[in-house]
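**Reference record**
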Amino acid sequence: MAAPVDNSEAPFARALREWVADLKESEDKKSPFYEKVLAAGSEDDGSEPFDARDPQVCSKRLSEFIEKLQQTRRDESKYLRLCARLEPFVDGITRLIKIFGTLAQAAPFEVGIAFAGAQLVLQLASQHVSAFNKMVDIMVEIERQLRCYDKFSVAFSDSADVHSLLLEAYKTIISFWHRASQILSRSSLRIAVSTLIKPLDAEWKICLEKLQRNSQAVLALAQATTAVESRQNQELDLTKKVAKWILAGEDAAKLLFRRDLAESRSIRHEGTCSWVFDQPGLKMWFDANSNAVAWYTAPPGSGKTVLSAAVAQYVEEKGNGQLIYYRFSFDDSTRRMPINALRSIALQLRTAMGKVPEEVMEIFNSEMQRHAYRLQDTEIAANVVEGFLKQVPRIHIVIDGLDECSDIQGALRLFSRLAGFENYGIVKWFFTSRDEPVIQAAMEKIQATELRPAKGTVMSDITTFLDANSANLAVRKCKDCVEYWTAASQENFLYSRLMLQLLCGDGVTCSDEIHEELRRFPPGLSGCYTRCLDSLTQRKDAERELARRMFVFLVFAAKPLTVNELRNALAIRMEPGFDDYQPGRVPSLELIKSLGGSLIRIEPESGSDAGPLVKFVHKSVVDFFKEDPSRLGIPAERTDLRNFFTSRKEGDLQLGRQCLKYLQFRRYQTDVEMPTVLANNNEHAFLKYAAAFWFQHLGDVEHNQELFSEVRSFLRSQAFRTCLAVQVHVRPHLFARYTGIGGGSIFSLGLEAGDMSKDDNITDPLPHWVELYKPDGRDISRALYDFIKDWHEVLVLHPEARNQCQLGQAAKLVFPGLASTMSKGIRVSTIKLPPGAHKAAMSSVYFNKSKASARVTYEGSSKTAAQWHDAPISSGEPSASGKIAFAPPTSGQTTDKKRLIRFTEEANQPTTSPTAWSIDLSGLEVERSEGGAESEALHAPKSFHIEGTKSGRTEWGLLKESTSVLVGCGPAVAFHFRNMILDDMRKQETDSGYDSASDTDADSDSGWSSNSESDSEETSDSEEQAPQQKPKSNASDCLVICCHGEKPVWISWDNQSNSQTLVSCALHPHEKLAVFSRRLGELELVDMASGEISRLAIEDPAAASASASVIFRELRFSPCGQYLYSLLVLIDDNADVGSTCQVLLSVFKFDGQSRDAGLLSRCAAVQRVTYKFRAATERLRAPFILSHWDVDMLYLCLPLLSCSPKVVRIDLARARHNILEDVTYAQTLTSPVFFPNSTASRNPRLLYRSSPTDSKDILLLALDGGFQGDGQGDDGNSYPPVVMEWKISKKDGWKMWDEETDGQEPALAEDLRTYSQLRGTFVSAEKRFTVVVRSGLDWTRKAFLSCG
């Protein structure tokens, strides 16, 4: 009897179950395949279940079986290598089984038997090496064939055809396990191995052909399905993309006016505005069968907006063409921008046409190629509108409030161009504005039909309006009231409405009282506003003060305030006792409306959850409150009225101090959940405004010591960290870079990655006068400058990681509140120096047992000797110290040399008498001092000395240093230097467009690599020329190798290739041999005893390209000296955004007894890691990457070496034995670490300590001391040596490298920090803002920038 059909069972599961059931029915019940595979784990199986229902468990069991097999055959190296090759197969089959489990919905037993089958055939094949080798090859090939299913099964998870093909592939694999087990079972009969391999080959050939046909069918099906779907969705998706590009991140609700038009029509009273439709000019404009322009002009407050809505309604009702409507608004940050008018018109035209014209698509595609992912350029926006207008049959475009545009001249230029544009259809333009000369001139130029209300026309509409509202008064008993009122309005609707609201108030009960009020009512808008204030003087003292403060906030606020922002601001009390938010003191909206009366309005903020805005009813109200009360005719004795008027400086002072008070509420002195707080627009409503603008309000006030003390108290509190966290979210431009263009007269706002150049500036979000109050003010400015300079990229790109942005030791004293919130998982230590020490530098950093320690060199009072000491970084107490006595200078030489000092000693453990090497950075002369004795001068070739250069400049900059791994014939150290002056000259000659900081990092050990065109080893002295123009040496690079007991070796060359190159030596642990490479395909071997150099060809990976922008090869011998590791790093610019870094690690067997071809032989497959990041290669600075070589592990920091570098480690022990080309034993950190921006310029060094007894490892970054300046003088930025340590969990601190998730910097995938994103939405987009910026290389140089 057939089993009942489960209708709920997935078709895939049913088909698979039925096939396996047929297989079980036909199979011999005593066969290994039946017992170990088909019956294992089934419900009727009484044995220990294989748990075939769980792919993870199955995978683990199979891996454990392979591991057990390795252990049993540990004495057979070939088995070990073969088992290592099975790991990708296990991963691949696991992924496939997970897919099947998803399709089968319940992950039935039948899905998991692939694991049991694989285990069975491996177990059977393990009896013979040849059979096992063959089975491993087959499984490797199966894994390759299955790769295509990973992506397609997910992308086409609903495709029945794909399900069928997947099932066929699975059946093919199981069938092969079945046949292979039958063949391999013959081994028990002791037949020859060859009789196993031949039939196994035949079965595998059949299986492989099926898998290949199946994968080709999957690919063809995927391509066909994709093509169909692409055709269906392409047009729709493209239209949406174009609309998103046009919108450019703006609030769509503010660019579409359906709701606004409805509101304007509801305000309009029946019978008003109808006169305009009888005007000959309007009739001619509307009836014209060609392009036409009309311009309606009238005084302020005369109802132009309502009239424009009436015209729009008239056009729609007549049905003669479609309507486009836009309204400028002076108090709306979005609607007063000319470019937003163009965006709105383009979006409405797209909707009206139902498609995107080809011409607009060409513009869109062109902008995408230029990475302009948002429509930001007004000229391009005008081109887009023209592209739409060219194809539209008939359209009416109504533009209201042209005089309220933020850039009237720019708007007129754009609209004049569009009005004169020749198109195929008919375009009618209708503008409204006040009668301003510049607008009138533009309208005359484009031959617009001018429409003005005839005398008495508006008066008639006002009469209609007042008559409609007369029920609110007793005017029906007084016929002349309306006439009197209308005459007083001077044809101003706003005046009439305000008068109506005033006279509808309490105290007016009869016609006689109305007459009285009308006679006393002042003429004109200013008089009307004064009357409003006069009514407030009758209120209680507390209400008058509240009204005064409300008007101050509305007049001087840096942005329109929401209702809740204003309510929270008005609840602030400056008295000492009020130190936190008090809900009972928050005024109600009803009270605010009552106090504001006719002067304010509540406007919904479309597209925002912040709530409605509080605004003045008209721009003239703002002008009124900014006016001198004497000019308004308010008598001096009316102090009650004059109290409502405040000067700009006094208003800013009041707002700034109240912002400080709010920020220092108790609730902001502790840890706050920032996303929750920022989303709370009720009790935290004023936090964003206070943090964003406190320093701006206080920037231009009459300051004094008392005000400075207030500011200092705030900056020292924990509330300051809350303020910074809020600023990062609402005003990210405060932490961006301002880069000078064209000599610094123009600045661009961006977030360029990498080191600072002399053109880069950062903001100083403090009142600019703070530094005048010495010494505290100067310390505050410098400490905040250093913090923002080092961490601005992290603060903007990773605001959630702000607690990992570390303060220096001095800054912690200045900002104790901010310091208290720094992450406890990071330790930052500033190297301690004796009093009077200067020119400090870290010679080496190392771990002494479990403690990080450093050897530091510094100068004291003597210029003929340097001092050094070893000390644990945490305590700074020296454990050893000594002096280095320099050789006396020869005649004419200065004693004040810039030196690089390094030490060599036995066993890599510090001693009390190490060998010191001092290298003069002007001529690369080397001095060697043994055990503190006077140095021995070892002179370099004369061509290396550069004369006549500016005082205080470094001529040779250190790019890379290498040290020996173990003690062999004596320790050695090698240095790659670059001629920084020649490098600067070549960059200026080629006008690279990027000015490096190398000429200003005087005391830094790092430098920029060159960017030139040929490569020759020979060097020659040039003829002497002007001292400031050309260095004496033509060598661009020099390698200096110092070996214990031997003279130094100098190797120079002139690098003029197009690539930036970096050289790192491998120093043999047992022989006086150094190996380095200056070009691809070649190694150079240096005998450090004789100085002889020989060359050896090397096979580089196929991916290596000599055209890469950055080429860096680091060579390293294993501790035993039998292996040579070649770490090749290639960095090149991407075609679109950012750069790609390729890491290629090759392992060679090194035979020191052989020569030429037998010296090196590749012994493992290349390890590959590819990483894409957001910076162009021109922004990169040597050393490009950081490395730390452990005995069996290589640790790397990939670029960028600032913000959030990608930290990777490669297992060298496994890499040495890996023979699979597509397998990389790489891991990356589970959680990112964050480096300061100055990392690359401070000779960074990376260490990693892993102890078997500790639960956590230590990642260490050492940054040298240094100086940065702009080359204009002695001022600049100096830094002490610093060490940063992170604790990394052994258990879950690392994860396997995944190319898909780890191979790209997250910021690269985003529309990264365009101008509008960095500017943020909290500051009005068209409103200019002022920031104080300081040079990125010299904090003492500052400027005031007005940005718009």
The mean pLDDT is 79.
